[in-house]
Amino acid sequence: MTANAIDLRSDTVTKPTAAMRQAIAEAEVGDDMFGEDPTVKRLERIVADMLGKEAAVYNCSGTQSNQMALRAHCQQGDEILIDESGHIVNYEAGGAAALSGVSARLIRGRGGLFDVDDLEGKIRPDNQHYCITRVVCVENTTNHGGGRIWPLAQMERVGNWAHEHGLKVHLDGARLFNAVVAAGYCARDFAEYADTVSICFSKGLGCPMGSILVGDTPTIARARRARKLFGGALRQAGMMAAAAIYALDNHIQRLKEDHDNAHVFAEVIAAIDGIRLSVADVESNLVFFEIAPELGTSAQLSAKLLQWGVKINPSGPQRLRACTHLDVTRADIFRAADMVRECVATGFTEIDGTDCAAYAAR
Ligand SMILES: Cc1ncc(COP(=O)(O)O)c(C=O)c1O
Fold it and tell me: pLDDT digit string (tens) for 208-241?
């Protein structure tokens, strides 16, 4: 493998820029558990205002934010409604069941998106035989749904339907700003239909870590207790909150570059015989594509690409995901696409893909 591999496994692999490191170094800090970290408090206020909510709590990770939200909304034995591709139900180590005693009823949507028709009939009857349906979970952009973007009108329909039926709405907005930049709507307008929203700073926004959960004051107070319970209470976290504030100021609009790069990558590899991909479905920074089974498996292609200095993870037996981000350039994208073409042209059935076979979650 070459020294400088092009890493398209995830937007979580970005390294903080020099300017972000400077913001980290200069951050004012205090003990967040005592409510005394001024930078964390500033970040929480900024994001709560951005999303039109009363309160916010800064956390370690997107998983933690999502699980804190479920804990804050649900009682043990409750059920959530979520698309079958949802991160919360597939890639959070069974956290809903393990941490909050919550089960999931899966919705078969399209690209991770669903509508009111898909939800009709999914609320359990008010009867002692059944669990209580409590929350509808929406993911925007969808991750394993394909990086797709929820239209604002669809979110409005789903949010209104949930609220009319007495349900809460949680938005897993790990990549909400990708959706905002691509669709051109305002984060606050989208968040209006959700009771809680989680945002990740460590993905497209390029921070070393961190996530935030927003909602009304009592819900966030319950979520804050859950943060402690889950072992995620923080101390001088202002250093990381400073990175998040820097990212909100400087790294949102540039997400368009990642989307353009994803589109270019998709267009080039879609022309390769044996690669299946709908360019029109590439709406943000995630490019999912399939390799024809007669050419080999996704794990084998991933392993060969790795040898050639390109990191792209499998996300199913024939499916792979390439993710563009702050640390890849247009030139990297063309080189990576060339490598895919070369790998397919020279074949890779002799490769042992075992090491690459663990399907990427991120
Ligand atoms: C849609 C979505 N939600 C939540 C998460 C979890 O984030 P973290 O890895 O910070 O726990 C991810 C991670 O990729 C994600 O894609």
Answer: 999 999 999 999 999 999 999 999 999 999 999 9
Q: Tell me the H-state helices in the chain.
A: 18-25, 38-50, 62-73, 87-90, 95-100, 116-119, 152-164, 176-183, 187-191, 217-229, 238-250, 255-270, 298-307, 330-346
Q: What is the pLDDT of residues 291-317, one digit of tens each?
A: 999 999 999 999 999 999 999 999 999
pTM to 2 decimals? 0.97
> Is residue 9 lining ligand 1, measured as CB closer than 6 Å?
no
Measured in Å, residue 208 CA sits from the centre of ligand 1 at 14
Q: Measure 87 CA to ligand 1 centroid, in angstroms.
A: 7
**Could you give the domains of the chain?**
17-250 (3.40.640.10), 254-356 (3.90.1150.10)
Q: How many residues does the chain have?
A: 362
- Pick left, alpha or beta for residue 121 (phi over 0 → left; psi -120 to 50 → alpha; otherwise beta): left
